[in-house]
From TrEMBL:
The chain crosses the membrane at residues 434-453. Keywords: Glycoprotein, Leucine-rich repeat, Membrane, Repeat, Signal, Transmembrane, Transmembrane helix. It is found in: Membrane. This is Disease resistance R13L4/SHOC-2-like LRR domain-containing protein. InterPro entries: Leu-rich_rpt, LRR_dom_sf, LRR_R13L4/SHOC2-like, StomDev_PlantInt_Reg. PANTHER family: LEUCINE-RICH REPEAT (LRR) FAMILY PROTEIN-RELATED (PTHR48004:SF55), OS01G0149700 PROTEIN (PTHR48004). GO terms for cellular component: membrane. The keyword Repeat applies.
Length: 454
């Protein structure tokens, strides 16, 4: 951090982070590869759009793909000419690439709308990360960047409706627009992005139903629309047979657990919690979804009983069914799931005897939750006093002496559930990045240091 401060007297500072090595190696090998003047000027003017007209690209970076590389910009050589293939804009953290606004809340900046077409033949990846002062809409001129394979606009202050012209970027494999303030519907045209692997619009204020066209995104591996205001049915998602992650938590989806869900055979993580979906677990043949590792259906208005077929999900590590209207008895088979490490059933109307054995309770600890099921009791013959399930009475209705002891464990349980879950879905986002980096795009890093100048 120290060096940053020292350098901040310069208007524009270059850093070479890890990935910078690539361009310098190239520069040694290939001293001054030519670049088309129009290409070069398009790059300068894109940067100028943020920094201001005073920024003289040809002066500061006469050979941006060669011996004067700009961090965040990387180039590929086609037919002996350099082309800009990656432009990454965001602050420095981890390996991510950077264009850093120092006083983010003071000076709102919008994405320039002009001249993107000049990069339309070459730009493959564009990222703007963690610039809260970057506001306004996504310019519809992004629709000109037809070679784009990755568009990542994460944790900025962007707003307004999503432009339907993003649907023209048919080479996109990754579209991540999470953590902004986008409103309005998901455009129908997004259904044309049939090479998409990763689609993440989470943490915005998008509303309305899912377009039917989403069912055509059959290559999708990860779909994350969590934390929006989306509503209506999710039945069209059944077509997404390669999907491994489906995260729709905290929306307003309804229409029941439609049978089509079970067509998503590849799903490993399905998180639908906090939606008024409703319906009955018995409408799904769970044995068809045997790759599931995480199944979170808490707070989804489920009714009916918990079917035995859930206990065929042998890879299940996390099962969340809490805060629903489930009733009936629990099958002891749930305790035989070989990988289960969190099972939350609290806040339902389950009844009868909990016939799990002590080793199960002791393995799960506070990651087993069954409290707030007034008609449920545990078979005290199967349990010594050290490992009673919190908040569940013994079947003979004696009052236990362990209230206080168990209380602490409940609090741990709440925490554990969250952190467990955050980790597991965090894994998804990291793995998407990992996945992408493996894709072979070479990237460099640009830091624009704008604290006094914007
Ligand atoms: C940028 O710098 C170059 C070389 O120093 C100079 O020739 C050119 O006029 C400058 N351009 C602007 C717009 O100031
Ligand atoms: C789904 O995955 C399989 C195996 O990885 C692959 O062969 C197939 O092409 C994928 N389907 C689509 C529509 O991408
Ligand atoms: C959720 O959707 C229902 C219709 O299914 C609608 O009546 C309700 O207003 C929506 N709630 C919110 C918070 O948008
Ligand atoms: C809970 O289930 C019992 C039967 O076990 C039933 O009598 C009771 O009405 C149910 N309570 C609610 C709130 O549904």
């Amino acid at each position: 951090m120290k060096s940053y401060t020292a350098f901040s007297v310069f208007i524009f500072v270059i850093f070479f982070l890890l990935l910078g090595a690539w361009c310098s190696e190239e520069a040694d090998a290939d001293d001054l590869a030519p670049m088309e003047k129009t290409e070069q000027e398009a790059l300068y003017s894109a940067i100028q759009g943020f920094v201001g007209k005073w920024w003289n690209g040809s002066d500061l970076y006469p050979d941006p793909c060669g011996w004067t590389p700009i961090q965040g910009v990387s180039c590929d050589l086609f037919n002996g000419l350099w082309y800009v293939t990656v432009l990454n804009i965001g602050p420095v953290h981890d390996n991510s690439l950077s264009f850093c606004f120092i006083s983010p809340y003071k000076y709102p900046v919008e994405i320039p709308t002009e001249n993107w077409w000049k990069l339309s033949e070459s730009l493959e990846s564009l990222e703007f990360r963690s610039n809260p002062s970057l506001t306004g809409q996504i310019p519809s001129s992004f629709g000109d960047l037809r070679k784009l394979q990755s568009l990542v606009l994460v944790e900025n202050g962007l707003n307004g409706w999503l432009t339907s012209r993003i649907g023209h970027l048919v080479q996109l494999k990754r579209l991540v627009l999470s953590g902004n303030c986008f409103t309005g519907p998901i455009p129908d045209s997004f259904g044309e992005l049939n090479q998409l692997l990763i689609f993440d619009l989470s943490q915005n204020s998008l509303s309305g139903p899912l377009p039917n066209t989403l069912g055509s995104l059959t290559s999708l591996l990860k779909l994350d629309l969590s934390n929006n205001l989306l509503e209506g049915s999710i039945s069209q998602l059944g077509n997404l047979k390669n999907l491994t992650l489906l995260d729709l938590r905290s929306n307003n989806f309804s229409g029941g657990l439609t049978k089509s869900i079970q067509e998503m055979h590849s799903l490993e993580e399905m998180a639908l919690s906090s939606n008024p979906i409703g319906g009955d677990l018995n409408s799904i043949e769970w044995q068809n979804m045997d790759k599931l590792v995480i199944l979170d259906l808490s707070k989804t208005g489920l009714t009916g009983e918990i079917p035995e077929s859930i206990s065929e999900l042998k890879r299940l590590r996390f099962l969340g069914l809490s805060e629903n209207k489930l009733r009936g008895n629990l099958t002891p088979k749930l305790a035989t799931l070989p990988c289960i490490s969190a099972l939350y059933l609290h806040g339902n109307n389950l009844s009868g005897e909990l016939k799990f054995v002590e080793p199960f309770y002791s393995k799960m600890g506070s990651r087993f939750g069954a409290w707030n099921n007034p008609n449920l009791c545990y078979t005290s013959a199967l349990v010594t006093t050290g490992h009673v399930p919190f908040g569940v009475k013994p079947c003979q209705a004696e009052v236990t002496l362990l209230e206080t002891n168990s209380k602490t464990r409940l609090e741990d349980g709440g925490l554990n559930q969250n952190s467990y879950f955050a980790t597991s879905l965090g894994f998804s986002s990291h793995s998407t990045d990992g996945f992408w980096w493996l894709g072979g795009l070479l990237q460099l890093i640009m830091v624009l240091w704008l604290n006094w100048f914007l």
